[in-house]
Amino acid sequence: MVQSSVLGFPRMGALRELKKATEAYWGQKISQADLLAEAKRLRLEHWNIQKNAGVDIIPSNDFALYDQVLTHIQDFGATPERYTQHGLDLVDQYFAMGRGHQRDGVDVQSLEMVKMLISDPKAVREFKEAKEAGITTRPVLVGPVSFLHLGKPDRGQTVDPIDLLDNLVPVYIELLKQLKAAGAETVQIDEPTLVFDLPSKTKAAFKPTYEKFASLGDEIPKIVFATYFGDIVHNIDALPTDIYAVHIDLVRHPEQLETVISALGPKTVLSAGVVDGRNIWKTNLKRAIETVESAVQKLGKDRVIVATSSSLLHTPHTLASEKKLDPEIADWFSFASEKVVEVAVIAKAVTEGPASVRAELEANAKSIQARASSKRTNDPKVKERQSKIVEKDYNRISEFSVRISQQQKTLGLPLFPTTTIGSFPQTKEIRIQRNKFTKGEITAEEYEKFIEKEIQDVVKVQEELDLDVYVHGEPERNDMVQYFGERLDGYAFTTHAWVQSYGSRCVRPPIIVGDISRPAPMTVKESKYAVSISKKPMKVDEPALREGLPLRAGKEREAYIDWAVKSFRLSVSGVQDSTQIHSHFCYSEFQDFFHAIAALDADVLSIENSKSDAKLLKVFVDEAYPRHIGPGVYDIHSPRVPSEQEIKVRIEEMLQFLKPEQLWIDPDCGLKTRQWAETKAALTNMVNAAKFFRQKYANKA
Questions:
Q1: Where does the record place the Cobalamin-independent methionine synthase MetE N-terminal domain (predicted)?
Q2: What does the H/E/C string look like for 294-311?
Q3: CB atoms within 10 A of CB 659
Q4: Alpha-carbon gap, residue 86 to 96, rounded angstroms
Q5: Sign of CA dihedral 350, 356, 360, 362
Q6: Which of 323, 326, 330, 515 lies 20 to 30 Å from 596, alpha-carbon distance?
Q7: Is 220 exposed, middle or buried, given 0-12, 13-18 or 19+ CB atoms closer than 10 A?
């Protein structure tokens, strides 16, 4: 028979229970025992959702309190010494790696986004936990090659992480043996980096590594080698063949099916990822069944598993919570709890025939057709306006050299100008008033007055801090994406469709259901008010490039970059030369698409580079990048406050690669999630550091 499987399940809970418990623990409102008990309850609930849906192969060890790679680091005894030397227990060491720790005399920064296996590893504990509940699971591990390839050497070290593979493999073997002893028959080992363009040394590491595992035979569980988010055709010669199963993403790249089947070992099973783990649309069951059946024709039913394309971590928990969603649109969606049902339905259809799931297939076909033919998906006015775009619409009036001269005259900024990325702390009171307004408990006028008072407070704080370029703080924005989506036609909005962003942070993205248009201004009112009460230049931050970037270089990536760059330039080309355009990137890995960054033609680029090696900025030197840059001088994702000296050291490092007149001094991201006390303290140190360098370079300018 064709079995069904899920590569991973969302961990936050239908009502974000894990987020609430984790943040309560950080705030010392609940005990560690309470946190771990809630985590255990959620794991059991999630296993039962999959079991009750009829899924044959259910994952374990896909759950994490903060991040699965941090869990993996800790399980493998690879926690850096700076986190283990302060007497913190394992849970607090774990959180310190993710978010830093600054309490009770301990001050360590978080890790940037192997020695020996620790006793009682989490993968074994959770397998046993599920087993005690009557559920046999397939543990999920981060693969050794991907783990090392995605790692970075500590600052000042030149070791290539992949060179540590020989030391790491024995630790994996020990863990696999422990899982076998606990009763695990199969283990899913995630090696998503096989979809990348890899260095030859990394590419050559896959086969010998998995041959070592295969040589152990029944001493370890059978291995499912899992890839996703791309195709592996370009690396097909690196695919291990002497293993139990290979998983591929047939949603993102269905064209790889034939090539992969041809490369499988004579007994290797194919795990066919035909249910999208990255999106919220219903699966076209007819098409998915046809894909699986084509694999079955070549391999037989016993050598094919129906699966999600990736972990469902990237999808909301359940559609059942969406009571206010338009029924027509809701019929197009499938969240994690619904997708596990789709997996089971596809497997049953292939095993027992379509007649065994006739009702499900008919309902699904009706939904797919309804979406395809809906008038909501097409707006003739958008198409008409698009058709009138001409080449000059993508360009600013003048080149940067002309613009910057006018901007300096208009803005009068000093050397090393200070600013923030856009948002300031969103307090409990802001959330209360927003909720009251949403429920109709206060009028629009009352809410507007409240927002104006919040903007006044933020402007006053910036005056007291002596920042150079202000922001209005974004108190009116519930989310940096959703806020804009709610002011555009073509989006649908949910009430509970939260997805983990990082750690305990969740987002509830608006969903594009049709052509997008802007019926009215989105930021003008608040920005005009902020300008009217401030003495300094005021910046408006709006979301900016990389989130949809294809993983591999090539035509697909170039097409995406061309589209993204044109979209950005089209949106800002209408401003005057004296208007300074800032763009922020929430990551620092920009070397492989630097040409796209340059093509944006933004006057000031801010990047999230505070925890990365300043040497990454060398690309701006190599490419003779002429515009201004704010690399981020401290990490806002952690509650710890950087010292003034720490920021000075960071700026000094940046000045090895950037000219003083290019460098802006700012945090590495928005301050929405931080508390006011830590925000003021960190910005005070930042401004003081900027003034130090301003004085130092005053005679050199």
A1: 4-115, 120-298
A2: HHHHHHCHHHEEEEECCC
A3: 12
A4: 11
A5: positive
A6: 515
A7: buried
Q: Which helix (H) or strand (E) holds 249?
A: strand 245-249
DSSP per-residue codes, 73-104: HHHTT---HHHHTT---HHHHHHHHHH-EEET
pLDDT score of 107: 61
Closest by Cα among 308, 269, 354, 318 to 55: 308
Going from the C-alpha of 467 to that of each of 132, 495, 632, the distances in angstroms are: 58, 37, 15
Contact (Cβ atoms closer than 8 angstroms) between residue 371 and residue 327: no
pLDDT at residue 167 greater than cutoff 70: yes
Burial class (CB in 10 A: 0-12, 13-18, 19+), 89: exposed
In one-letter notation, the amino acid at residue 583 is S
The residue among 425, 417, 638 whose CA lies nearest residue 539 is: 417
Measured between alpha carbons, how far is 521 from 72 in angstroms, rounded to an integer?
A: 46
The total number of residues shown for the chain amounts to 701
Q: What is the rounded distance in angstroms from the CA atom of residue 40 to the CA atom of residue 31?
A: 14
Question: What is the model's pLDDT at position 100?
Answer: 67
pLDDT confidence of residue 97: 77
Higher-confidence position of 326 and 555: 326
For the chain, the domains span 3-70+120-373, 391-479+530-696
- Return the SS3 of 285: helix
Buried-state track 265-284, b at ≥16 Cβ within 10 A, e below 16: eeebbbbbbbbbbbebebbb
d(CA 100, CA 234): 39
**pLDDT digit string (tens) for 647-692?**
999 999 999 999 999 999 999 888 998 999 999 999 999 999 999 9
Fold of 3-70+120-373: TIM Barrel (3.20.20)
pLDDT for position 459: 95
- What are φ and ψ of residue 516, in 5° steps? -100, 135
The helices-and-strands tally (H runs, E runs) of the chain is 26, 19
> What distance in Å separates the CA atoms of residue 298 and residue 292, rounded to the nearest whole number?
10
Class for domain 391-479+530-696, per CATH? alpha beta
Locate 237 and state its tokens.
């010669």
Q: Are 503 and 66 in contact (CB under 8 A)?
A: yes
User: Which has the closest alpha carbon to 250: 229, 267, 281?
Assistant: 229
Burial 54-79 (b: 16+ CB within 10 A, else e): ebbbbbbbbbbbbbbbbbbbbbbebb
Q: How far from the centroid of its chain's Cα atoms is residue 699's Cα?
A: 44
| Global pTM value | 0.83
Give me the chain's average pLDDT, please.
90
**Rounded to whole angstroms, how far apart are CA atoms 571 and 565?**
10
Q: Residue 179: exposed, middle, or buried by beta-carbon count in 10 A (0-12, 13-18, 19+)?
A: buried
516: part of which helix (H) or strand (E)? strand 511-517
Instruction: Read off the pLDDT of each residue in 269-280 and give the average, rounded to a whole number.
Output: 97
Amino acid, single-letter form, for residue 429 = E
First-last CA distance in the chain:
75
> For residue 224, with 0-12 CB atoms within 10 Å meaning exposed, 13-18 middle and 19 or more buried, which class applies?
buried
What is the phi/psi pair of residue 486, to 5°?
A: -70, -15
> Which of 516-523's residues contact partners 24+ apart within 8 Å by CB, and which partners?
516/382, 516/488, 516/489, 516/490, 516/491, 517/379, 517/381, 517/382, 517/488, 517/489, 517/490, 518/487, 518/488, 518/489, 519/487, 519/488, 519/489, 520/487, 522/484, 522/487, 522/488
Mean pLDDT calculated for residue range 629-636: 91
Domain 3-70+120-373 shares a fold with domain 391-479+530-696: yes
Distance CA 191, CA 408 (A): 50
